[in-house]
């Protein structure tokens, strides 16, 4: 498989990209001039120019003074109305952000056989895994992306076995990001009148942190493929660092209008995930988003998914029901939610529907 016009049978493609772990980067390394059929979206799922909202944008919130009540108010409002905002002046040094993005490039520029060492079957630890697409064995159409996922567990020794190109950069980024995650959750829970805020945050909302180095290689047919289909994250919140390539779109106010999350140097994109929508009984909204791909540049993003621990029982907080509201959601164990989400193709906000009473 070396010719520039490689034609893949579906089984060969799945074998090469998924089972052997070469991913989309491996395909792009072959120098293919057209993408395999399995990556081609049906026309109705492509994001057209006329679906891009021209009159809306994502709030950019300056958090240099977290204690300013106006800042708390604008964060809670953005979480309730849009489910997405960007923060600037959060205090993480630019160098830490640049280094972790650079780690994404370095990892995916490793030879195919070096990357493949982190495929689930080969990885020296389950806390680091190389993946491609979203759920490649369940999806009709594959996504034009690969990612290396790091599960961070405090005091866990397994991070020693993470790749040498990403280990220090990811750990350093987490160290700086954690107080920001805590601050954001504190503000958002205060907005719900939650009483034991710090306990609730630790025990129910940030039991696991997944840090992904996501790599969207240059795509020969960017208009036909997707980096990520429409979905909401199942986290409590997601902190996303992106580079200056662009391509992340979130649901606009009007149906079928999408707002580009314009890259802002040093900013972090904050997405509200399903879990915060559920515990807040719909006060806060998880945001639907999707990612387009690029024909000229490789794109890297680094989301941190702030998730409950696997065995946490999740449901609307009592404080969110104090005014006599009826709970919209059942109580469930987070690992069931997680396994359902990853066991099927990406589908809008399907998973949260399952949690409804
Ligand atoms: C995700 C996601 C967006 C991006 O990984 O869930 O939505 O810009 N990523 O990479
Ligand atoms: Ni997402």
What integer value in Å does the Rg equal? 20 Å
Find the count of extended strands (DSSP E, 2+ residues): 14
The end-to-end span amounts to 51 Å
Outline the biggest β-sheet. 8 strands, mixed
The percent range for strand residues is 15-25%
Strand order of the largest sheet: 1-2-10-7-12-5-4-3
Compounds present? N-oxalylglycine, nickel (II) ion
Order of helices and strands: HHEHEHHEEHHEEEEEEHEEEEHH
Q: Segments where pLDDT lies below 50 for 5+ residues?
A: none
- What is the count of DSSP helices, taking H or I runs of 4+ residues? 10
Sheet/helix structural class: alpha+beta
Mean pLDDT rating:
94
State the share of residues found in helices, binned by percent: 25-40%
What does this entry look like structurally?
The protein is an alpha+beta fold and 357 residues long. The chain contains ten helices and 14 strands. The chain has helices at 10-19, 23-29, 69-81, 94-109, 112-115, 167-190, 197-205, 274-279, 334-342, 350-354, and strands spanning 60-62, 84-88, 128-132, 146-152, 208-216, 228-231, 237-242, 248-251, 258-260, 268-272, 289-291, 299-307, 313-314, 332-333. It has an eight-stranded mixed β-sheet with strand order 1-2-10-7-12-5-4-3. Strands 6-11-8-9 form a four-stranded antiparallel β-sheet, with no helix packed on it. Helix 4 packs across helix 6. The chain starts with 9 loop residues before the first helix and ends with a helix. The structure holds N-oxalylglycine and nickel (II) ion (NI). Nickel (II) ion binds next to loops.
Tell me briefly what this model is.
By secondary structure, this protein is of the alpha+beta class. About 30% of the residues lie in helices and about 20% in strands. The radius of gyration is 20 Å and the shape is globular.
